[in-house]
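Q: Got a minute? One more chain.
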Amino acid sequence: MMKHIVWVGVFLAMAASPVLAQSNLLRNASFETAGSNAENAYHWELGYPDQDGAKWGSAARVDWRPFSGSWMGSIRGTWAEAGNDGGWWQQTTATPGQRYRFTAWFWADGEENKWTAADQGMKLEFFTAADQLIVEHVYRFFDVGPHWVRKAFEATAPTNAAVVRVVVFASDVGGSGALQFDDLELIEVEESVGILPGPSSRSTGVVISEIMYNPPDRPDGKDLEFVELHNTTPFTYRLAGHRLSGSIAYEFAESDALEPFGFLVVAKEPASVESVYGISAVLGPYEERLPNSSGRVRLRKSQAKNPQSDAFLLEVNYSDQPPWPLAADGGGHSLVLARASYGEDDPRAWSASAALGGSPGGPEIPAESVYTSVVINEFMAHTDPPDYDFIELYNTSAQAIDLSGCTLSDTVNTNKFVIPEGTIIPAHGFVVFYEDPDRNGEPPPGTTNFHFGLSSKGEDVVFRAPDGTVVDAYRFEAQENGVAMGRYPDGANQFHELLEPTPGAINAALWIRSVVINEIMFNPISRDDNDQYVELHNWSGSSVDVGNWRFVDGISFTIPAGTTIPAGGYLVVAKNAVHLMSNYPGVLNSGNTIGDFGGNLSRSGERIALAKPDNPNLPDQDFVIVDEVTYVDGGRWGEWANSGGSSLELIDPRSDNRLAANWANSDESEKSEWATIEYAGVLDHGMLPAETAIDELHVVMLRRGEVLVDDVEVRLVDGEIEQENRVENSTFETGLGGW
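A: Always. Here it is, folded:
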């Protein structure tokens, strides 16, 4: 019943935009009908009954916990011994120019059987009549857990499309659990349907759904700064007693309310927002203003028993620094709550709005642009002749794209270079633009020179569509001379230093520096911050001078001048060095442990960044990131490191330590000592019928973990005489007999 209620609520909320009266284009969408065997599904298996569907790898039809009916689809972990990836696809005839919406319900195992995957999501692929891929649209998500959630996205068929294919996929899966899905749907829609976020907190069904904190300056002087609230429930939400606080201050009136699935905008200049966006009933003005760098928005509610105090319902601490979307920092876009299940204060929950100006007072409308397939793929910002700065674009799609009129810039609020007419980026290909060596004069012949320089001290690199929409943007810090930053492999989500520059070609592998953040104790079992530390490791064959290196994010500490880490050696940076050395006598000493660092390691996760001066002769400026880690408490980052007695340890120092899969809980099993636990007392609890003997011993744990047990004894004490041990096989020498 609860699943049915949730489904109806979401459907009604999205039905505000026109939808064609179409039935589901997918067949056997709930996997109820088997194919050649129980693990295969009819219409999802080649040859059953046609060639329009299939599965691969670890995919299987299962009956574990279907959302509806008796069966569902799944992609299983490596425990299934069917490889480390898998998926399902089904295709049908496409109508050129038609817009399609692909929807499915998802569940992922959690807790002890937690599902993990390096990549997972849904695809809409369009093919020609000759079965050639034209373009694929990918919707990735990593916020699915042990509860059913609905995922949906849309795409429009190209003019030469003959076939549309839906795909559910996962790759590099972990050893446990499964991704499960049911009630897949492919329908035709007349126009883009607004995407409504779900709840971001258990405290309330209201969300802070959009923030315009740095709107561009306008010739008419109107200030379009605003905050938007959204009601995710099918019930009217009264705002009496609520207020916004943090960087701004606003108290709602007794009559203010959010209608079911409704939106409410609060602005710095309500009349300006109403006139520019053509909406009404904008509240405000609020006091103060949203900072353009970083700020806070809170929704608070007064307590019924104590009206003088109120409670936090929601809190967003936004920033203009990565991983927060750069396009919202004066680029004309707003922040929109795109993945609410991360929680409203997690930057992963937010995206830049699809449209310039955002969508105050209504849902986010998905963008449909060919340019979204083009990404900034590589750049170099610190060069000396004969090398020059460059920006490389990469086309992730299977069709060539005309970039005429698109722009490049080193700042998010100004277009500095217009890409010339006739510039075509081939399918899965590259286009490179170099710095004009004489950018103060006339541009030299050729069409691939931009007339500005990228700052070696750090700034932005921005790619816009002809209409001004920010397609891709990246804010970088100080760069080392001759080192390129790029995505690996091409088109990947993150930027990293590369082994060598490769403009116009496949990117080189990641450059992993010889000194890495190797271990993090962020939440010790003692709950004492004095036990926190960060360990550095030099995996190279030569000693490394780390003097004047410093932590520039997460914690603050400058390593003393003259400090070196020997080849294969370690250096521990402690919250309280003297205290930590007393915890590990004989292991830590003043030669390998330094401190005390400022601040604390967040127990909920944060970014830690280690940097070095670009010029050793200028030790206090232009710090180049040597290594960085953004860890999270639990989940894919290891449960036992979160106050369970373990630390986070890097599995291989030569791996990309930004990825959770390359970290593990420290192994504490060899660090414990045997302890004798003994208890004596009168056996006076419980009663068995007919004088049946009490002959069972239960050894239990009060929480999850691992305990070794040996030499178990139960003896009756008669006066001062102990009788023989009543536990057979008490030393487990004969296996588990008797246990």
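A: Residues 2-14 form the longest helix (13 residues).
Q: Perfect, thanks.
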